[in-house]
Amino acid sequence: MFEHLHALPADPILNLMVQYRQDNNPLKVDLGVGVYKDEQGHTAIMQAVTAAETHLLATETTKTYIGPAGAEGFNYHISRLLLGNEHSALKDKRITVAQTPGGCGALRMAAEFLAKCAPDTTVWVSDPTWANHIPLLKGARLNVTEYPYYDGATKAIRFDAMCSTLESANAGDVVLLHGCCHNPCGADLSTDQWDIIAELLVRKGLIPFVDIAYQGLGDGLDEDAYGVRLLADKAPEMLIASSCSKNFGLYRERTGSVMIIAPNQQQAAVTASNLFSIIRSHYSMPPAHGAAIVETILSNTELTKSWGDELAVMRNRILQLRHQLANDIAATGCTQDFSFIPQQKGMFSFLGINKDQVGRLRDEYSIYMVDSSRINIAGLSSHNLNYVAQSLSNVLKG
Ligand code: LMR
Asked: Which molecular function GO terms apply here (predicted)?
């Protein structure tokens, strides 16, 4: 029966990691997968994470099962980190939280939940969106369609087109939004635009589904949660997928959470039973370690401060790199304007070059990025900025 299968192409983002590792050029630069790196190009373990792991090693007494919802303490703290301590959805007990294997686990469980509610649900995703959104949603047999989002020519959000397209959506359709640090384009909605979108979604009976994988890496932990908090307050039904991969640096520990907001506490209990049953039939229960680290940090004032301070250093470094990249490209005499890069947020921006130029950067200069020209800003450093700027400028000259 296996002969019915056809070989599939490798994942475009993850394959870049393999290609980069195999490249022997000492000047090689990895701007591919979205992983934070320090000035030395190293993805270090955050200090609060090491402290929490040390504490867990000394105090953990069991490895017994934790159940489909994961750890209660993690779910308590992660929902407050995301929504704030005083959020109405928490006070009204309208929210179900489950710890998941990373943000992908959260997205997929949310998608399976939607499919269980209504199998022919349509999910609107931004054009462009993170490449893995599509298979995660379609894997749950949902219909996926796009709303306009980023204009490659003006480097800005196509906000009017986004709104008019969403006006044409049907009540009960789901709208997937990036909570902050849009992946791949780095162009985020302003608070005014979030207000307009929230009003539109609620008025039309559209269900918000927010993927927030970079909280704290844009403008700040609270600032980055503006949209998700607003929608959780206004919308009667909502889904949220969050990830601890980037802001806690827990990539391989696969730590995330799915949150589902119901119109009232009674409906929330029904929601919870369905979500936990879906989880049980997929992976039964999430891995514990990453969430135990996050819970240890967020339940300790000192560790929370250490973590928040280190996250701020990462955020500010990314912003500084954005400015330096735009300046260094301009300093090469390049006539193309890259001043949009410091205006965008988080790890990613499109350079706005074509696939051939991306290929030349890879083949001639060993600079790796996704074919769409999405770069991971955090892959830059003072060691490679000039090289990247000059190489890009050379390629643009033709
Ligand atoms: C990325 O977009 O590079 C990250 O979110 C990693 C991934 O899994 O694709």
From this structure: identical protein binding; L-aspartate:2-oxoglutarate aminotransferase activity; L-tyrosine-2-oxoglutarate transaminase activity; pyridoxal phosphate binding
CATH 3.90.1150.10 fits 12-46+304-397, yes or no: yes
Instruction: Point out the catalytic residue in the list 28, 37, 124, 130.
Output: 130
Right CATH number for 65-299 from 1.10.579.10, 3.40.640.10, 1.10.10.10, 3.40.30.10?
3.40.640.10
Report the C-alpha gap between 119 and 310 in whole angstroms.
43
For residues 213-224, one letter each, b for 16 or more C-beta atoms within 10 angstroms of the residue's C-beta and e for the rest, the string is bbbbbbbebeeb
Give 338-393 pLDDT, tens digit per residue. Answer: 999 999 999 999 999 999 999 999 999 999 999 999 999 999 999 999 999 999 99
Q: pTM of the entire structure?
A: 0.97
Out of 124, 246, 307, 345, which one is annotated catalytic? 246
d(CA 259, CA 272): 10
Question: For residue 245, how far is its CA from the centre of ligand 1 (angstroms)?
Answer: 10
Pocket test for ligand 1, best of 104, 126, 130 (most atoms within 8 A of CB): 130
Q: Where are the domains of the chain?
A: 12-46+304-397, 65-299
In this prediction the ipTM stands at 0.95
Please confirm, yes or no, whether 246 is among the known catalytic residues.
yes
